Amino acid sequence: MQITINETRLISELEALAAISELEPPAITRIVYSDADRRAREWFRGLCDEAGLSVRVDAIGNVFVRWEGSEPELAAIGTGSHIDAIPHAGAYDGTVGVLGGLEAIRALQESGMKLRRPIELLLFTAEEPTRFGIGCFGSRLLAGTLDSGAGERLNDPDGATLNELRAAAGYKGTVESVRLPKDHYAGFVELHIEQGPLLEREGIPIGIVTNIAAPSGLRITIEGEGGHAGALLMPYRKDAFCAAAEIVLAVERSAKSTGAIDTCGTVGKCSIHPGAVNSVPSRVQMEVDVRDTDEARRDGVLARIREACADVAARRGVKVEIEVVNADAPAESSRTIVDAISQSADELGLPWKKMVSRAYHDSLFMARIAPMAMIFIPCRDGVSHRPDEYAKPEDIANGARVLAHTLAKLAQA
Length: 413
Ligand code: GLV
Ligand code: MN
Ligand code: MN
Known about the structure:
Elements: H1 7-18, E1 28-30, H2 35-50, E2 54-57, E3 63-67, E4 76-82, E5 85-89, H3 95-111, E6 119-124, H4 137-142, H5 150-153, H6 162-168, E7 185-193, H7 198-202, E8 206-212, E9 214-223, E10 227-228, H8 240-256, E11 264-273, E12 279-280, E13 283-292, H9 295-316, E14 319-327, E15 331-332, H10 335-347, E16 352-357, H11 363-366, E17 372-377, H12 393-412
């Protein structure tokens, strides 16, 4: 039976979603539980209703869009991604997996196929760490890797808790109820842009992810002593921001010290108190992101950052506190799902290569409760998390084609 992806429909839906942003296009910002997030979800719900798919929303806003199989009691095959977008992001990160997943299901419906297993499309709440400082909290809770205290413990920069924010957004029920049983999915496949340059550079339309690198995040708070920028003389200072600057460079040095191209260290967020040009910084808080395909090597970098913090604290007479926000294990894809993707690409005549995902994805956590693999498509110059992020319509449609064929195979098994 012929499975036909409607490229025009898919691209116009990606464009429509891109227009729902807190910023003027092409810069997309869609923070979880914001007005833009709510509008995007309502719009997406309309598409699911039009397609005649049933929709369940859990207590934190994870959305499950279900196409029933001929044997509804069988474990489902899951697909999906996220629609939240970091500040000044682009239009393709996550959205290609959500709308591409919807298009794949519609293509299967329209083909007249009747599959054995149900297919569930997931829209994960907050893959991005922007609001709560931790990535993938929707899938973490689904996979049971965050404790039930998360509802009160996680809060946004304004101090609002996850429980307050989800209630205000209309999500009811307990955080515990989000967890899925381990046998809910027989398999999970996520379609995503590569967010790196390899597929485009090598002219290969399909990447098959075999491993997802291990992410970690630290929140470092430095307490020094503030004062007047003219009257507090240099020998007597305990400038929290100067200490922070040394720590930022130590993060870079520690990441580079492994000699491995797969180690990355970034300080992407920093706030200075009191934040006045004529006031010596008394307090700095920054967020550090360290990743590696090798968990032990990643942990070695975290240890070196700790040593550097202790050294800076002693030399400069400041107090440095380190909170480990997350230090996750890497994920390995399932051979069966990787094979289903490669066979699908072969049937479609699309060249493919196996690759590692250096970015994290909800699939990192879905791998803990289901066999998982991911489909990557090229994006221009490997650029992501920027307004000029771009994936070609043809590549997006090819990704959705491979996804539809893969879902069909897995749902028949
Ligand atoms: C996901 O957005 C990541 O930062 O890898
Ligand atoms: Mn992202
Ligand atoms: Mn993403």
